[in-house]
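Schema walkthrough. Field components (list of strings):
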Amino acid sequence: MPCEKQGKGMAQTNGGESRRSDCPIACALDIVGDKWTLLVVRDLALGKRHFESFLDSPERIATNVLSDRLRRLENLGFVSKNVDQSDKRKSLYLLTPRGQELRTLMRYLARWGLKNIPETELLDGAR
Amino acid sequence: MPCEKQGKGMAQTNGGESRRSDCPIACALDIVGDKWTLLVVRDLALGKRHFESFLDSPERIATNVLSDRLRRLENLGFVSKNVDQSDKRKSLYLLTPRGQELRTLMRYLARWGLKNIPETELLDGAR
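Field assembly_structure (string):
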């Protein structure tokens, strides 16, 4: 569990990282406070399942960053990684039921961006 | 203007940084996709005005990070910096009308964190 408490007054874990405070904003940023995590969630929500397909998105995520974010989302219980039965050399990434909650956050961010940042538009498939 | 376009098909600026795509999520993350910016916005929303007072928050932001985020928010038009008339050696930081929009985003994040991360609670003054 991200930000699970380990004891009153003690440092808490967030996927192995320390919790900065009990503030929900700080804890949420401990999970998604970077430039890439919610873009990976966006691509999962758009139906991307294979590692290579994420690399095609317009932001051109680097392979090491993508590996790191998928692994982190998996460790936090937001993403599952399974063998693709149609091609067993490949992995299939899916949002878990818990991970579906990240779509809410992603939608909030999209709504805010559309309203406040000029000339933004949702990617095809996200409308 | 963050993410203002400079020309069709050209790289766009976001406070001097390049825009990764027109996706509102990517553009929003270009502004707030780090662990500290929205915590500074939280503190501004809670009424903090002086540099030193941000340092007292439970997350213990480092002075160089705080300087950077305040300068960046000022450059993006979200924060104004003025001389404190009651002590002219000090600066007063305030959210601009444009910066008030960041409170919406901060509230979204707080709502999500409260719902999805165990044992989170709003700081005193934010209830």
